[in-house]
């Protein structure tokens, strides 16, 4: 396994892999790797001879008052975990390598999907995600890219840009990996105090309760109320939103037929966690 920080080095390594007849799988991340990330890498390795992992905390997808500066980082630990998951190449570009033109650069605008759901509370977030992913796909040139369902709206955004911009990659979704008590694994879980960590599984319990109450054609509001009620039982949690979306377009739905996603954002102290569950 090799670690590189320049786009030319990535292109050269991928070119050499292709010369050896290998398919290329790509897993973009912001690092501080956990089992959820490792599962993406293992899936990529099953399906491709050569796997590229990127670790880049992308300033473009953080709002001005978000956690860009304090986002957890552990390059050595990440390299050890990635090599265990049989990654072939790690790409860790500095910000100047990704954005040499600074603020005057071209960006990707994802349209209305970027303003729904998470986008309401994180303006510009999905344009930042789409821009960095388009650049990374262009640098790596993979056959397949791997994304977690943990970030369901992000997955929908990536599918949309691949379709709209004719990006020559196949998007492979991977299931959310959870702690034994149901909490979705996240790099941001590292921010939680012991008491907050104890309260955190209430988020997934609320989603499960809503899913169990689901009946085809039923009102979305009833599901949202269940989530809100369950979360309000845990005093440490503050609900930011509970919404029901069409899983593909991420437009809010009022009646839940097939393929809907119940998505939640909630605060534990200063830590913002998101999770979701599929119904129908
Ligand atoms: P991040 O480093 O948080 O930007 O995440 C990088 C990739 O890992 C994204 O595709 C995420 O959806 C995915 N991911 C993060 N947490 C999990 C999880 N608990 N289970 C599955 N995939 C995850």
Task: Provide structural commentary.
By secondary structure, the protein is an alpha/beta fold. Helices cover 37% and strands 21% of the residues. It is built from ten helices and eleven strands. It has helices at residues 7-19, 35-47, 75-84, 95-98, 118-121, 125-140, 152-164, 194-199, 202-213, 220-232; strands at residues 2-4, 24-29, 50-55, 89-91, 144-148, 170-174, 218-219, 237-246, 255-256, 260-268, 271-279. Strands 1-4-3-2-5-6 form a six-stranded parallel beta sheet, with helices on both faces. The chain has a three-stranded antiparallel beta sheet with strand order 8-10-11, covered by helices on one side. A two-stranded antiparallel ribbon has the order 7-9. Helix 6 (125-140) crosses helix 7 (152-164) and helix 9 runs antiparallel to helix 10. The mean pLDDT is 96. Bound molecules: adenosine monophosphate (AMP).
